[in-house]
Amino acid sequence: MKMNLTRRWALFVFLFPSLLGFLLFYILPFLGCGWYSLVDWSIGGSFVGLKNYVNILSNDLFLMALANTAYFVLLAVPATMFLGLLLAIVLNQKMYGSNIFRTAFVAPMVIPTASVVLIWDILFHTQGTFNALLTSLGFNVIDWLNSDKARIVMVLLYAWKNIGYCMVIFLGGLLRIPKEYYEAAELEGAGTINKLMHITLPYLAPISFFVVVISIINSFKIFREVYLLAGPYPHESIYTMQHYMNNVFVSLDYQKLSAAAYVVAGILGILIYALFRWENKYSSFHK
Amino acid sequence: MTLLNVFYTILKISFLGSVAAIVILFVKKIFKNKISAACHYLIWIILLVRLVMPYYPESSISIYNFFTNHNYKTEEIQSPVINNMSHNYINSNNIQSGVNSSEQKHFSTDSFLIADKQQEFANKNEPNAFNLLPNQSRYTFSEYTYDSNKSRFQVPYIAAIIWLLGVCFGAVYILWLQLSYSMKIKSLSPCNNRNIIAIYEICKSKMKVNKKIPLVMDARIKTPSLLGILHPKIILSPDYVELLMEDELKFVFMHELAHYKRKDIIVRWILIFLQILHWFNPVIWFVFNIIRQDSEKACDEQVLSYIEPNEYKKYGNTMLKMLDIFSGNNSIYGAVGMINRKKFIIERVKNIVNFKKNYLLWSILGIAIFSVLAVFLLTNAKQPPQEVIKIKYEAEEIGPDIELESVSKIKLLSNEQLLTYDMENRQFIIIDDEGNRIDINCEGLPQDFPVQLFTIDSNDYIYTFVSNTEPKIYVHTLEGEKIREINLELKDVNISEENAIFRWDMKVDSKGNIYLLIPQAQQASTQVFDPEGKHIKTLKSDGYVLMVLDEEDNLYTITYKDKVYITKQNPLKDEILWEYEDDKNLSYLRTAAYSKQDQSIYLAELNNNNISKFDPESQSLNKMINMDAILSEKTQDEFNFQDFAINNDGSIYLCVYNNKDNKSYLYKVNSRKIHIEGGIKELTISVRHLSPILEYAINKFENQHPDIVINIDNHNAFSWITSDMTYEETLKTLEESAKKANDFVQKINAQMLTGKGPDILLIDSIPYRRYADKKLLLDLKELMEEDASFDKSQYYSNIFDALEYKGKLYAMPLDFSYPAFLTNTGFLKEQSIEINDKGWTWKDFIDIANRATKDIDGDGTIDMYGMPTIVPERLFQYIYNSLDKGFVDYETGKATFTSEEFIDLLKMCENISQETFVNPDISEGDMQMEGIVLYPFHIHDFSIFYSNGLINADEVSFYGYPTLNNATYNFDSGEMYGINSQTKYKEEAWEFIKYLISEEIQCYQQLYSIPINKRAREIKIEDRFADAEDMMNKYGDLYGYQVTSLDKIKKQLTDNVEKLNEILPKLNHTNMNDIQVDEIIEEEVRRFFNGERSAEETAEAIQRKVEMYFKE
């Protein structure tokens, strides 16, 4: 829209405080980080160009962390979305206590991670609840957090926490679908599956893209739970990117940290850009 | 930013601005006709800038140099400055700090203050000061928070409030005016008169104004004015407008448009804003008026520049006509009218008449004046260099001739003389500053026992507590006359069981009420009696440690367990005024005193030999003096602190006992102010905990280098382990300590990353190898070689070599020890068990321990065990740290935890704790270790002397741990310090490090391990032998061991020292892990000992994780 100068100026004045904060605490550090990734030491280092990137990309540990993170995202995001959608569809019906259930599923999101981790630790400890159950049934003790099963535990934790989020957003999307379509479909004799496939899912598509993007970003944040459960050096299958970054920071290798951060930012950026492009195409196609 | 701060800033700006304004006025008067009106107007920008910004660069040509007072700003520092950094706050300036606790093997020699047999016995039961805190439990009041009674009605505060009220009033008034007028304006109709609009448009185009400025009619205003910043309008009055001719209207419009072009509206609003802020300054009001007039003149000038010269006169006439018509005042602040102040019309007319189109020359002159004024007025005066005054303390001995045998308490009389009691001669003595002594004979005082408890009251009467049969107090005057005898109604205390009365405390308040404190270690209670001896009350407590009375009869009681709790109460009125809590890890408070002069409480802490001051008003606990450092200037002998008193002008009297000649001495400590010329150099030292050695060294170093001020950042990042802790508690404390260490490392990391870290660091749990890789630490080896005065042969340079990393030395150790098994060789000989420490293995050790576990006297219970109980984690720590192999190679980045040796080690630690040769009654940290044969220990010279007493064996020796490699001899280093490579004061830092390892500091009595300075070690060994002989000759006792054969013991001691002498030059290895590796190992090992996994799995997990650590 065409804006005259005054209006633009007024807009700028109102946006300015927020913009200032964003600039100061987000953009500028990000750029500073970029600079650090191109020098060899943060205090008085010399410019080395892309050497840091080459270093970390040829580092086994970093690549393993990258693979772990990708694996986790590919596992956790679809699972959460699918379950979230399921729950949303189920809880969209008029049934007794749907509100209570909705609250119950969203509640895990608001509990602070540290408290959640306490309980999870008790559950999955080598001498914890699940193992006690297993031994009482006669099976062997499984070392949950220090073997391959660790990944499953983390996915479970992530899912438990974030299903509520997906569910709520899908619920919002479901509510927007006009009832008339369903009624029309019923008149024409569509069954449940048909209704699901041809009405619900297409209309949920724009929302789903949003959920996918947010879920991917959230799944990167699993570091908090892993760190609190298993410390800075967990089992290999759950050693994620942020572990690498965190540990490298403690060892004062600031340049590696910055390079790793930029790699992650780059990957995420490309991913999300691709998703948005696809979404545009999809929605314009469908319009 | 408190109100006062803002107020003071405004005052300052106002004052400086006024000065600037006057100068500008002056300058303008000089150049009145030489520069154009526009320049006159623009010069005022300087004033506006001056009034708005508070900060300017300093320059010597500033005009303000005339106005600064030349008192040098002085800062008084009580150096060294010790900053206590807890996780949630930082207290600075001489805060009492934590105490060395990481080595729990150092035993205090305080137990051996011997004045007479009774005391000796009592002293042995005294809790050991170094690694144990007496179990004081806390008296819990309801939570009273301290309310500081600072008067809220001081004058500057009132002035600030008045100013603020004025500002608010002004702001509200202006805003209201503006709002109300802008509402009215909205409803005004635009001008409809075509003619007028046409004239207006012509003017606009002539002056090249593009913005749409509507004309609005309002009957209420008098002069035509321009109004508004965002949406400017010109307001005309329809009635008056008709009175003007076309030309005159043209001039009016042009004048207003000129105002618009110059953005005068904005300037006016700035002026209003500033005027509100500086409403109290008449100069500002006056000057601002002049600014407004200048703006008019400048506008006139601008108008004139757009019209033909022959119209100038017409313009002037227009103005006069306007004056005629519109004789009222303009009451709208934000408006700029054509007429302001009749008087100045005359001036303006004059200007119009004299107007010439500007010459370039005058513009240049204008610019020149502008720049010169800017430079003069927009800079601040040069601040004079800050002068620093150091407060230093000096001790002088009182009366070198007074012969005091054994004095343990001193009291200050109202005439500033000291009252003491000599235990040896059983005599009360008064001593004055010159050292004259007057003996007092108190009549009627039972002479069979020495007086253990006495005090004085405000009338200078001596109260003596006597308790041979019943508790009584005798009251005497200073001449020795007995005034009365009080029978004390002592409740709940069995007098006959008490034999350490000297540990009690007694105070008398101004009304004669007597307070008696019986400390925790005995039958704790604190009781109050009236002057007749009748019991008034017992203060509910489990035992205070100290109590002090102030002049208003308020009682301050002090307890400490893990924190220091100071409570102020008035027991007779049953009031608790406040309670203060401080977690500075103080230990062993010995005495307290109240000072009338500054109304604070002084505490004497025995571990670091400090006196600290608690100031109730600012609620801060600060360190005052380090007695060791002060007294070491006067005497080289070692002494034990006994008591202190403070007189009315703040001087401190110390009473100390000299072990060598068994006499007591009195010192008076005065403070002295030293002016430091020139700049001071500040050295910052960051430590995890403040050891007594460092404290001693910094005090002495500062005395010798007056221009250096040392700041200590003490992070207090450790937790005590006391001997009464259970297994779980010990583990928890270890975890807590590890976490605190981790936090400390993070903090230091963050500081170093910013490039502003401390100059010197204590390298304890800091990953110095990483720092070294990043070139954050200086290479000390290089400094050693460059320094010609440094002689390597004076030190155990093999230790230096062993601590090298990649060929450079980054950490300078102050002391070290040799980890080995302390062995009861006498018993082993009896049982014909032999230890071959040249090649024995851990299996041999287990074997020997088993064989040593025996039931000697045949009563069915085992009397002698192989080892005390040590929790497996600690045992693992001991052995792992003392192994000649760390399983980690830092230089290559490889780890070998999956090797069999490590797995065997884990299994062995687990097994040992369950073996039968472990004594269940004795655990590490116990004071008496009788009943064990082998004890994992840190051997140093001092420990050789007290080992007999420790394990109560006739013959002791030590054997190095079973090694895996015969060529390595392990040692454990003590404190180590490194220098930050970014420090500004390299030489000073190196000087300090050198000083730390110099003979002077290394001979300090609190340095118990093996000093790195060879000569210091020799001196210490000589001293120890002398002390031991003395002890054995006088009492037949060697640190708790009853000596049977003097010669045998002497030979044993000499042999052991010789053995150590042989080993020391061979030491070539130490285990120092990076803190992350230590954490990994600790966590996995803990899981292993918990039974969660097997040894192989643990080793694998550690290996994997450490490999990850190295790969990063």
UniProtKB/TrEMBL annotation, chain A:
Cellular component terms per the entry's GO annotation:
plasma membrane
Membrane topology listed for this record: Multi-pass membrane protein
List the transmembrane segments. Answer: 12-38, 70-91, 103-123, 152-175, 196-217, 259-278
Query: Transmembrane as a keyword?
Result: yes
Highest taxon above the source species: Bacteria
Q: Does the keyword Transferase apply?
A: no
ABC transmembrane type-1 domain boundaries: 66-276
UniProt-annotated location(s): Cell membrane
A biological process from GO:
transmembrane transport
A Pfam family matched by this chain, by name? BPD_transp_1
Q: Which family does it belong to?
A: Belongs to the binding-protein-dependent transport system permease family.
* Name of protein: Carbohydrate ABC transporter membrane protein 1, CUT1 family
Automatic annotation (TrEMBL), chain B:
Which residue spans adopt a coiled-coil conformation according to this UniProt entry?
1043-1070
Q: Which Pfam families match?
A: Peptidase_M56, SBP_bac_1
Q: What protein name applies here?
A: Signal transducer regulating beta-lactamase production, contains metallopeptidase domain
Q: Which CDD domains does its entry note?
A: M56_BlaR1_MecR1_like
Give the species.
Anaerovirgula multivorans
Q: Which domain of life is it from?
A: Bacteria
Domain Peptidase M56: from-to ranges:
9-352
Q: Where are the transmembrane segments?
A: 6-27, 39-56, 157-177, 266-288, 319-339, 359-378
Q: Which UniProt keywords apply?
A: Coiled coil, Membrane, Transmembrane, Transmembrane helix
